[in-house]
């Protein structure tokens, strides 16, 4: 026996999908625009590389701020809801994988300094 879905609910899913698609499209177009401006201004990439090297500590603080915000959102907003629905070891594995991914990203960002 199938449960009928109301038209508002069906339209809500479609609207959410379209909104997510448009946001992803806008972000992609914006990133391509920034990349094209950077390639126009600095075709070799030396100025951008020098800027990234000079501001690596500020960018590190920014990334730490982003990681802190994501961790807060995960542990205080999302995780309690997920634990209620499906407690288990897979959640812990996912958290360890995310932490490992962040560590690998940071090692890649700091490899020129560490070498």
TrEMBL record:
<feature type="transmembrane region" description="Helical">
    <location>
        <begin position="59"/>
        <end position="78"/>
    </location>
</feature>
<keyword id="KW-1133">Transmembrane helix</keyword>
<feature type="transmembrane region" description="Helical">
    <location>
        <begin position="90"/>
        <end position="110"/>
    </location>
</feature>
<keyword id="KW-0812">Transmembrane</keyword>
<feature type="transmembrane region" description="Helical">
    <location>
        <begin position="17"/>
        <end position="39"/>
    </location>
</feature>
<keyword id="KW-0472">Membrane</keyword>
<protein>
    <submittedName>
        <fullName>Uncharacterized protein</fullName>
    </submittedName>
</protein>
């Amino acid at each position: 026996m199938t449960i009928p879905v109301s038209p508002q609910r069906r339209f809500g899913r479609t609207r959410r999908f379209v909104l997510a698609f448009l946001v992803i499209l806008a972000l992609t177009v914006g990133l391509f625009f920034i990349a094209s401006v950077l390639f126009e201004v600095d075709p070799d990439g030396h100025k951008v590389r020098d800027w990234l090297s000079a501001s690596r500590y500020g960018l590190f603080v920014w990334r730490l701020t982003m990681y802190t915000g994501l961790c807060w959102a995960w542990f205080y907003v999302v995780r309690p809801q997920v634990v209620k629905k499906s407690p288990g070891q897979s959640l812990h594995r996912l958290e360890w994988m995310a932490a490992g991914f962040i560590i690998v990203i940071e090692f890649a960002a700091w490899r020129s300094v560490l070498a």
